[in-house]
Design brief:
Helices cover 58% and strands 0% of the residues. The protein has 283 residues and is mainly α. The protein has a single domain, classed as Orthogonal Bundle (ADP-ribosylglycohydrolase fold), CATH 1.10.4080. Helix 11 packs across helix 13. The structure holds magnesium ion (MG).
Length: 283
């Protein structure tokens, strides 16, 4: 899961808020694109994967689900490997603070943006749906204690759960979410350019998950939406990677081009194995 999620993020990251004509010319999965404005190297993942690492590592370590433990992990993944891609103010905040205690003490958790949703996918691997929702909510409320920030995180976690634990069909995902989250908005996919709100990314990912059956086609479709497409692709590919219903056909060039280094693809592959073992699934 973490490998595919990171490939979605890194591939989408080359096209994040990029002009339509660049996307039309280069979104063919033949290579990671160089972002037209950011210096980030092609194949390097962004905040979406880094935040998901905080959650996935907590799960793999079978650590306790508390605000303090989550804050510790959010702080640690950034402090050990600072990188770009975070919302400007959150990036400044993470740079400024001295540790997880200060994170909890000073954070103003009123954001409706996608931060809580982008890291929520792995939580869906838990077998118990109540655990999935409770933990998705707990982590969301630390930084995004708003209706939209939380609902997007619930949906991203349940999307993974639908595939990993219910063997759900792609086309049944919107209805599952609408019923479980008691909100018909999940039946209405976001089909316009994706802005910064969590609900935009989550609704876009759900709509595309429901209408595709291969990871390759799903990834291209995420990027074609334009806007905050690295987040859409992170949520969508993380969920679809847990399903037998999608062709697991991401091109080799994207696997091989994903960043190496201390927290690159070797690290992600090893974490995937630990994560699946911790939740009683096989990778
Ligand atoms: Mg990002």
């Amino acid at each position: 899961m973490m490998i595919q999620l990171a490939i979605g993020d890194a591939y989408g990251g080359g096209f994040e808020y990029a002009p339509k004509r660049m996307i039309r010319a280069q979104n063919d999965l033949s290579a990671y694109a160089q972002h037209p404005r950011f210096a980030r190297a092609p194949g390097r993942y962004t905040d979406d994967t880094q935040m998901a690492l905080a959650i996935a590592e907590l799960m793999a370590d079978e650590a306790e689900w508390t605000r303090e433990e989550l804050a510790r992990r959010f702080y640690a993944v950034f402090a050990r490997d600072p990188r770009e891609g975070y919302a400007r103010r959150f990036h400044a905040f993470l740079t400024e603070i001295d540790g997880p205690e200060e994170l909890l003490a000073r954070i103003v958790p009123t954001s409706e943006k996608s931060g809580a949703a982008m890291r929520s996918g792995p939580i869906g691997l838990y077998a118990n749906e109540e655990d999935v929702l409770g933990r998705a909510d707990l982590q969301a409320r630390i930084t995004h204690d708003t209706p939209g920030g939380r609902a997007a995180a619930h949906a991203a976690a349940l999307a993974t759960h639908h595939f990993a634990r219910r063997d759900g069909a792609p086309e049944d995902l919107p209805e599952y979410l609408a019923e479980r989250l008691e909100d018909a908005v999940w039946l209405e996919p976001w089909t316009k350019s994706v802005g910064p709100l969590g609900m935009m990314s989550a609704r876009a990912a759900v709509g595309l998950l429901a209408t595709h059956d291969s990871l390759s086609e799903l990834l291209r479709a995420c990027v074609d939406l334009t806007g905050d497409v690295d987040t859409v692709a992170t949520i969508a590919l993380g969920a679809a990677s847990c399903s037998t219903r999608y062709a697991q056909d991401l091109p080799r060039v994207l696997h091989e081009g994903l960043e190496e280094g201390d927290y690159g693809r070797g690290y992600l592959a090893a974490l995937d194995a630990r994560l699946m073992a911790a939740v009683g699934l096989t990778a």
